[in-house]
Design goal:
Blueprint (H helix, E strand, L loop, with lengths): L4 E3 L3 E3 L2 E3 L2 E4 L21 H7 L5 E2 L38 H8 L11 H4 L20 H10 L16 E3 L2 E3 L3 H61 L3 E4 L7 E8 L12 E6 L4 E7 L1 E2 L6 E8 L5 E7 L5 E2 L6 E4 L6 H67 L3 E2 L3 E4 L8 E7 L12 E6 L8 E4 L1 E2 L7 E7 L6 E7 L9 E2 L6 E4 L7 H49 L6 E4 L3 E2 L3 E6 L13 E6 L12 E2 L1 E2 L6 E6 L6 E9 L2 E5 L6 E6 L9 E5 L11 H15 L3 E7 L8 E2 L13 E2 L2 E11 L2 E10 L2 E8 L15 H19 L5 E5 H4 L1 H10 L8 E6 L6 H10 L2 E4 L2 H6 L13 E3 L26 H16 L8 E5 L8 H13 L3 E5 L5 H17 L4 E4 L4 H10 L2 E4 L9 H7 L3 E5 L2 H6 L7 H6 L7 E3 L4 H17 L1 H13 L5 H15 L1
Parallel strand pairs: 2-5, 28-36, 37-38, 37-44, 38-43, 44-45, 45-46, 46-47, 48-49, 48-51, 49-50, 51-52, 52-53
Antiparallel strand pairs: 1-2, 3-4, 6-7, 8-9, 9-13, 10-11, 10-14, 12-13, 14-15, 14-16, 17-18, 18-19, 19-23, 20-21, 20-24, 22-23, 24-25, 24-26, 27-29, 29-33, 30-31, 30-34, 32-33, 34-35, 34-36, 39-40, 41-42, 42-43
Length: 1152
């Protein structure tokens, strides 16, 4: 703490305080003064005082450590006892008495001339001493300022000669260079003056600037007021209700809106409010209260900020309740100039929507993650409680069992066995003696003890060879046995050899031997510990099991996602020879290049190619884009153009034409070209599709139709469309259980519900009868079951009644009536084959004008061999039609029922359900496998199949045949293939049955003959067996499908899913899916796949031999190549991933 003392006016002391006194002054040493050559007292320095009395020197006085704790006292300047010139005692400047000095020194007030800390206590680099604050002399700025202003400081100005700065330290005055200090002091004064001058100039400039700004604002306000008054007069004279200022509205600015209440419906209202929004009422709504303005008349006004995104302002006035002025129904409108236009604003809104969607998606993902964690915690808690309960139950059961065993356990049996010593405990080494001649091992050369403990708790725990003993009282043998630590009862049998080799046993007449461990009678603590061990064991087993299931599920999901991604890429590139894009994935908000090859289309040879494009199934807000003339690309066969894809696009739609105004079009045979757009802010609206069918796998399946209905519906539903199915409620339907894709509910059965949440839905009357409607979920699909009370579907079968046509006609009409009465509005009604073909004409004749006008009919032909009349009529009435493979569509194109309607007839390949047919998750094969371990998986499956059917366990090629035994399936070729395979030393397995009894009996006879002649290499299973079919697909090397005709065929697709190589005849869908490894390289390459099997043309034995012999030779001659082929076919995707995309395109084409 430092205190300044004024000595007269110019001289100030800063005393240094020490612990023993409040003030302590140090003597000076002034060697540079003429009158002082030795140390003298302060009072004797009269000459120095006289010369420097007016210089205003400030002496530093430092406070002692205890000063702050002492009460400050009034002080006076000490006067030495020695003679002192009169008048030397310091006097305060005018106006400064003792009280004033006390206030100043105590820091309570600062007088006008008293230096504050920032002025007097600043650092002095020249006077610093390490570790201690230095005293210093200082010229108080305020004193000099006062002298300069009063004109009295001239005689006190410091000169370079004879002037010095006094430093008080350690009781002496040290000399310094007076000249340098004076020059520094003068320079500081000059710098201070310069700073003050600049500050005054800056303040003056700021003042002038502010005054100018105020004048300008006042002028602008005056002009603004004049303009507003002028506008008010003009608008009043014209009878306008509203005007605004400024007259040109800019974005991100403020405007004032004026409203003439007197000319409005609000003229009698006390409150006037404005309600509005920007950009055609689409952006940032607002409500503002208006106030009475200064203008003449009844003008009210309010301020409004215009956002930077605005291109117009829309508003109405009202009284805050129900009375409005909306400009005679047109609303009030102000244009905003210089900002966004409509397109830019919509793009901005879409970008904001995209950001919002990303934010919401992130939040949703975080919520789902948290919820999943909570579900796991809760599930783990429940499972842990179940483990604890199970452990308790098992220990109680074991405890009870052991207690019973202890009652009957003995320590020895005379002349049979005994232990030495008799008393022993767990972990003890004891000798077990056994009298060989006492039982079945009397003739054995070796004696072994096979043992366990506690009623064989851990199974066989040890095997010990017994040795002959030296005892003379019989044929005794002994074994050294270490008693298990936790043993209460020892369990064992005697045998003539070690485990796996023993033949003869002495097992105490099937009771085994049991001996009590005498010193191990358990207490309650033992059972507590056992229960804890059991609980921990159950915990570990469960967690290990759950981890394995979780890992498998994750791998399955990854494989499915990768397969879908590859299939989508293949779909996008499937027309690469005609049209493709760069990049392949069209992204919303980006530009895309479109390349088109007209040489393979109707525009071949046209001099110009025009590109006509829109988005979102031709429904985009921008409408069709102007036609673009395509330019030749570097690839001479293709033309190119570039398109900017909007942010709200989910589909890119385009066609090509020869002229700007049209002419000849390439519209992909009426389907148009469509490419999905990724990353947009708008998703494609889902279609509502209703399948009306008489079959559905697995609950009402006869053939492939039932598989298609279920699998296609699942695949389309996975693409976010709404799918329902309407099915007859047969009395023979398998509602409850099925033995595949199962869950384990007991140690002996693996069953699960086929129809979940099955319940009564409603009833209605039609066709003279009550029809009950039931609802349930099948494979995740919503199914409505119609049960008419007339008994049409209580016949014990699906097909085979004399009135099948009448039954199914009734069902089709009843299904449409159900949709109508229930208020359904489907986009698509999908009917299948002759049995539900009547839907097409019943809809058009009876329901198009009465509630189902939105619906369009898609009709699929699964087999043209049945119901041709119904099929032909459905082709007439349907909006689009399909069949189950492109090649079959070509084969039936000349049929009279089809030929007139080729413009709406399309071939779409069927697929298989990859969840049902999945070797990685198949419960009916011994080793799950993927393409990565296909060799090991199929080897294990073949061995299991051979064992199950009693075939020789040999490394031989195995041909599988899974089929219905009908003429269509080529039964004469099947018989020939069986004998040919046996001639080539292969094995053959057939699974199937014949609806024709004669064919069935023929194959029964063949099976008996083969069993007697080739029982180790051939087996015919003449009934349907779902689990066995899975094992055959996995265990066979080849799957034979020698069909005479085959619309699609699923057998060859399932075979490839399991890594079996198909051998097929080139017909229908077999031609579309199997590509010969020797002859179809080019055909496969065009479709972006690799050859995958063997095929033949003519349906005779020579053609079959050509394909089958090449297949068997490939197995024998090149096993590595063959195994690689198995891996390749497993990697191909024959699921519904691709066909579902094709069907969705067909649905949209039907809706155009």
């Amino acid at each position: 703490m430092e205190v300044s003392l004024q000595m007269k006016r110019p001289l100030s002391f800063k005393p240094e305080f020490h612990e023993k006194g409040i003030f302590k002054f140090k003597p000076f040493v002034l060697p540079s003064f003429p009158c002082s050559k030795t140390t003298q007292s302060y009072s004797s320095q009269c000459t120095w005082h006289n010369r420097n009395a007016a210089r205003g020197v400030l002496l530093t006085v430092s406070a002692g450590a205890g000063f702050s704790r002492r009460r400050p006292k009034k002080t006076r300047t000490p006067t030495p006892k020695s003679s002192t010139p009169k008048g030397f005692s310091p006097k305060p400047p005018p106006g400064m008495g003792n009280q004033k000095r006390d206030q100043t020194s105590n820091g309570k007030k600062h007088g006008p001339n008293t230096p504050i800390k920032s002025e007097s206590d600043g650092p002095d680099k020249d006077n610093k001493v390490s570790g201690k604050q230095q005293p210093f002399l200082e010229i108080p700025k305020n004193e000099f300022d006062k002298e300069r202003l009063d004109g009295t400081a001239n005689e006190n100005k410091l000169t370079a000669a004879g002037k010095s700065k006094k430093v008080v330290e350690n009781g002496s005055i040290d000399s310094v260079d007076e000249r340098a200090d004076d020059v520094t002091l003068d320079k500081s004064i000059e710098d201070e003056k310069e700073k003050e001058k600049k500050a005054e100039e800056a303040a003056l400039k700021l003042k002038l600037k502010m005054e100018e700004k105020i004048r300008k604002q006042e002028m602008e306000a005056k002009l603004r007021k004049q303009d507003i008054e002028r506008l008010a007069m003009e608008n009043s004279s014209k009878g306008n209700k509203m005007f605004f200022y400024p007259s040109t509205v800019k974005p991100d600015g403020d405007i004032e809106i004026f409203f003439n209440r007197r000319l409005s419906t609000l003229k009698k209202e006390h409150d006037v409010l404005m309600m509005g929004a920007f950009n055609d009422w689409r952006w940032k709504s607002f409500t503002i209260t208006l106030n009475k303005s200064h203008l003449n008349g009844d003008w009210w006004s309010c301020q409004l900020h215009v956002p930077k995104e605005a291109f117009n302002i829309n508003f109405v006035f009202y009284n805050g309740k129900t009375i409005y002025d909306n400009n005679d129904g047109k609303d009030f409108f102000i244009s905003v100039e210089g900002g966004m236009d409509l397109v830019e604003f919509e793009n901005f809104v879409l970008e904001e929507k995209r950001k919002e969607q990303e934010r919401l998606a992130k939040e949703q993902a975080e919520r789902e993650r948290y919820e999943e964690e909570q579900r796991k915690i809760e599930a783990d808690k429940k499972a842990s409680e179940a483990d604890r309960a199970q452990a308790k139950l098992e220990i109680e059961s074991r405890k009870e069992l052991l207690q019973q065993m202890v009652k009957f356990a003995v320590r020895s049996v005379d002349n049979v066995w005994h232990f030495e010593p008799k008393e022993f405990n767990g972990e003890d080494l004891v000798k077990l003696y056994y009298k060989k001649s006492s039982g079945a091992l009397s003739q054995a050369k070796e004696i072994w003890m096979h043992g366990g403990y506690n009623n064989w708790k851990d199974g066989l725990s040890y095997a010990i060879k017994l040795l002959p003993s030296d005892r003379t009282d019989g044929d005794w043998w002994y074994a050294n046995v270490v008693v298990p630590e936790q043993a209460l009862v020892l369990d064992w049998v005697f045998a003539d050899g070690p485990p796996q080799s023993a033949v003869v046993y002495d097992n105490n007449n099937l009771q085994d031997f049991h001996a009590l461990v005498p010193l191990s009678i358990p207490d309650e603590q033992y059972w507590v510990e056992e229960e804890l061990r059991m609980y921990q064991k159950l915990q570990d087993e469960r967690k290990s099991r759950e981890a394995a299931i979780r890992a498998k599920a994750e791998k399955t999901a990854i494989m499915k996602a990768e397969t879908k991604k590859k299939t989508l890429q293949a779909f996008l590139l499937s027309q690469r020879d005609i049209v493709y894009t760069e990049p392949v994935d069209v992204k919303a908000g980006n530009s895309v290049k479109v390349f088109y090859n007209p040489s393979r289309t109707v525009l071949n040879g046209k001099p110009e190619i025009w590109f006509r494009c829109s988005f979102n199934r031709w429904t985009h807000r921008l409408g069709p884009l102007p036609p673009q003339k395509m330019l030749p690309s570097e690839n001479v066969t293709h033309f190119r153009t570039t398109v900017k894809v909007p942010l709200d696009a989910y589909m890119m739609d385009f066609v090509f034409s020869e002229k700007e105004d049209g002419g000849v079009f390439d519209n992909k045979h009426g389907m148009d070209y469509h490419l999905p757009v990724f990353g947009g802010v708008v998703e494609e609206p889902p279609l509502q599709i209703v399948h009306i069918a008489v079959e559905m796998a697995p609950i009402a399946k006869v053939g492939g139709l039932g598989d298609v209905v279920t699998s296609l519906s699942r695949a389309v539903q996975e693409l976010n469309h709404k799918v329902d199915i309407i099915l007859p409620k047969y009395d023979c339907m398998k509602y409850n259980l099925r033995p595949y894709k199962s869950i384990r509910v007991s140690p002996f059965q693996t069953w699960c519900l086929q129809v979940k949440d099955f319940h009564f839905h409603k009833a209605y009357y039609w066709g003279g009868t009550e029809i009950k409607v039931w609802f349930g979920k099948v494979e995740g699909l919503s199914v409505y079951f119609l049960e008419p009370q007339n008994g049409f579907f209580s016949t014990g079968c699906i097909y085979g009644c004399k009135n099948d046509g009448q039954r199914f006609d009734f069902f089709c009409h009843a299904a449409l009536e159900f949709l109508f009465q229930s208020g359904f509005q489907p986009d698509i009604l999908h009917c299948h084959d002759w049995s539900s073909a009547p839907v097409a004409w019943f809809l058009k004749d009876n329901y198009m004008s009465t509630g189902l006008s939105k619906a369009r009919v898609v009709f699929t032909i699964h087999n043209l061999e049945f119901g041709a009349a119904n099929i032909g009529k459905a082709m007439t009435y349907s909006d689009k039609a399909s069949t189950v493979s492109p090649n079959y569509a070509n084969e039936v194109a000349k049929n009279p029922a089809i030929a007139p309607y080729l413009y709406k007839f399309h071939g779409i390949l069927n697929g298989i359900d990859p969840d049902i047919w999945d070797p990685y998750n198949d419960k009916f094969i011994p080793v799950p496998y993927t393409a990565e371990n296909v060799t090991e998986g199929k080897k294990a499956a073949k061995e299991a199949l051979q064992q199950k059917l009693g075939l020789e366990k040999a490394d031989l090629p195995l041909v599988g045949i899974i089929t219905r035994l009908t003429q269509q399936k080529g039964i004469h070729l099947i018989k020939h293939a069986i004998w040919r395979t046996l001639e080539r030393n292969g094995q053959v397995v057939l699974l199937g049955s014949a609806p024709d009894p004669r064919i069935q009996n023929d194959f029964v006879n063949l099976a008996n003959k083969l069993h007697s002649t080739h029982g180790d290499r051939a087996r015919l299973c003449l009934s349907y067996d779902e689990p066995l079919s899975h094992l055959i697909y996995a265990g066979a090397d080849f799957i034979l499908v020698p069909s005479i005709f085959e619309p699609c065929g699923l057998t060859q697709l399932t075979a490839m899913r399991y890594g079996s190589i198909p051998v097929v005849r080139k017909t229908g869908g077999l031609y579309d899916t199997v590509f010969d490894v020797d002859h179809d390289q080019d055909r496969a390459e065009k479709l972006g796949i690799e050859p995958n099997g063997f095929n033949f043309d003519v349906a005779d034995t020579a053609g079959l031999d050509y394909a089958l012999n090449r297949a068997l030779s490939a197995w024998y001659d090149g096993r590595d190549w063959f195994n690689f082929l198995c891996k390749k076919v497993m990697e191909q995707d024959w699921s519904w991933n691709r066909p579902a995309l094709d069907y969705i395109e067909l649905y949209h084409a039907a809706c155009k």
